[in-house]
Amino acid sequence: CWIFSAFFEPIFWACVLAFVFYPVFLKLKKILGNREPLSALLTVLLIILTVVPFVAVLVVYLVSEAGKFYDLFWRVIEDGRLKQWVDQIQLSPIMRKLESRQTLADFIHRNSHAWVINAAKILGNFTAKQAAFLTKNILFFALNFLLTLFLSFFFLKDGQKIVRFFYEITPLDERDKKHIFKQINDTFAAVLHGQFLTAIAQALTAGIIFWSLALPLPIFFSAVTFISAFLPVIGASLVWGSFVIYLLALQQYTKAAILLFLGTFVISLIDNFLKPLFIGEKTKLPYIVLFLGILGGLGLYGFVGIFLAPTLISLFFVLIKIYLEKFSDLKNP
Hints:
Structural class: mainly alpha
């Protein structure tokens, strides 16, 4: 495991692609008379024709939009509009009420400009660094992607043998092994479908709303919503909530109210409805466990932890259940 850990991400994404396209492989295999290598090769070619163009166009566009976002932030800072927005916020009715408490008002006046400017600089620099990172590491990503496709071919061709190997060496009874492997399969499928479908639905909805309200770079922030939507509960609100603050700073209160309403009861409600439907019901895990598990997985394993952590947690609870069933006499000695 330590030796192969250097290739953890390509191996993981190859598993994901093989898992998603395995029904296609089985159909091709049946049509071609059980010719597994040819069926796997054609499935990989199908992946290349469907996934590669989409990913390439998306990456190029996002790099371009990230540059525009960076330029927009620095123009706002340099021409003084950021200071004007902060002043407008300080003159708002809410801030005037806070000014009745002199200590809090002084603290806000002393630090508000520094807070907003520093936040803008951090966000702008982060966006620029990520765009530069993507641009400079195109070759690295291309090699990783080629390795992913290469591994996908073998996972499709030999997937049943690999699963059978792990099935045979699992030191449990036949009934327990069937239960465990079914739980792993169902959980991974639920998390994969639930996360992607929820993120796509939230991103499309947010993009339409941002475009309708004439907000800047709606497609770029729709893509940011897609990424942030993988975080449960708070994900998409990080994007549309920032836009609400932006609109309040511009004193566009009607748009801010509309976005606050649509963000709360449309964009974020999609997450609260679809994720429990797709993930919670099939994994049989409480939503709070999923929430903490996804955040913990993200911290430990990066983006792949979003999919890996719920599967591992679900496996843990299945093993606990089997343990209690096998050794229930320990509970009542």
